[in-house]
Design goal:
The chain is α+β, with helices and mostly antiparallel strands. Helices cover 31% and strands 22% of the residues. Bound molecules: coenzyme A. Coenzyme A (COA) binds next to strand 4, helix 3 and helix 4.
Length: 147
Amino acid sequence: MDRICISPYSDIAHRAEVIALWKTVFGYKEAHNQPELVIDQKVAFDDELFFVATVGEAVIGTVMAGYDGHRGWIYSVAVSPEYRRRDVGSQLVRFAEGALARKGCMKVNLQILEGNESVIAFYASLGFSVEKRISMGKRIKENIPAT
Ligand SMILES: CC(C)(COP(=O)(O)OP(=O)(O)OC[C@H]1O[C@@H](n2cnc3c(N)ncnc32)[C@H](O)[C@@H]1OP(=O)(O)O)[C@@H](O)C(=O)NCCC(=O)NCCS
């Protein structure tokens, strides 16, 4: 059985593999969601809430969290297809939750894109429940690089 380790993201050690994983798993097209930009901004923010799951040197999963003093958020939960249903995703989310809890966070939120409802069961297995909310967002165009 492979030994799975969860540790803070390191730009030197993990960058290329995280980018490759996110391109495979998420494949976002929008400029503000490009992995290189997302990573650069998170690293610059330096809140120590970005984690990877590794087997040996290989990155097999990610989770990114954020805490703004009011709510914690969980983003970018991804596990390589060949490692799914082996508890990696659960370990990543629990790890991020632990880090948020240590910062004083009282409630963690996350969003699931329309069409990806099958992951509700995954988050429900970790104690999350679907809440009646309408999610809205707005892009701040001057901060998004032109493609
Ligand atoms: C969602 C994801 C992170 C789950 O990772 P994982 O390592 O396979 O999850 P776990 O092995 O920890 O699953 C724990 C439990 O969650 C549930 N679960 C996980 N994936 C599920 C799925 N696709 N459908 C239904 N239940 C699921 C099961 O109850 C599972 O327990 P079991 O394997 O004993 O039945 C992974 O499938 C993934 O990377 N998906 C693509 C990216 C994505 O959609 N991320 C979420 C964005 S909001």
